[in-house]
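Morning!

This is the sequence you dropped in the shared folder:
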Amino acid sequence: MRVIALPRSATVTARVLAGFATLLLTTTCTVVPRPVPEPAPAAAPRPTPSIPIAQPPARAWSIASASEQGAIVRGVAPSGTVALSLGGDAVPLAADGAFIIAFDRDAPSSETLTATFADGHVDSRTIAVAPGRWDIQNIDASLTGGVSSAEFQRRRAPELARINAARAQANDVDGWRQDFIWPTDGRITGVFGSQRIYRGTPASYHSGVDMAGTTGTVFRAPADGVVILAADDPFTLEGRLLMIDHGHGLNSAFLHCSKLYVTEGQHVRQGQPLGEIGSTGRATGPHLHWSMKLGSARIDPRKLARPAR
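The structure's back. Tokens below.
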């Protein structure tokens, strides 16, 4: 066999390579994993700035500071009012604080309106009341409506009882909030507040407005309401009498009618035909007498109905 001798440098190189291979085979390699960075903590949510809720301002008084005898005043009581009174008499108060008050033909020169709150404290307003100007009228008619005094008294007591019972009703209607209209366009022949003298005998003042018209002329409702009295059997003085409750103690009375179209308990709307003008009861001729009361105060329809006449 022929032996081939390697150069010395080649032999050394081979031995180095063999030793390195042996080292690789006998050495255990440990792989250290790269650390995984922890996730950054979530940022805290930014607080939403609070927006103040605008509170409605407290409702203040809304009312005229002056009026006149025979007139009404509408108003709104302050927020939180639980009771209202005028001169010590209770005043109906709507849920929204609205109210209506009136000053009688003979009201004093001022009245005090007082609001009472839940905690007991009160807030008052003084209303100046200007005097009215009242006429004197001489009427050529019998003071007792053409019947004897004894007969008049006998018939009058139950009539007044019916009128008072009608006015004591309290119906849930809002006619008092409306702008009143005239029930007829007849010429005004008698005014509110005038002193009446019947054939030389003084009597109480005229409690309403007289409007001329022929028998059968239709008259209409000045505002919404409920019929609280419809007297088809004529009363001694008022004749056929119709009364309408407009709510909050405000009512209308129509006297001397020749015919009535509505009945007691019926709801009526503003402008609805109510009946016909006549001359029943104590009357010198056909006309419509329109009188109004708010509680115990008699008021002038001319200061309420529009347009002014």
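Headline: Residues 66-130 form a domain with the Immunoglobulin-like fold (CATH 2.60.40).

More detail when I'm at my desk.
O.
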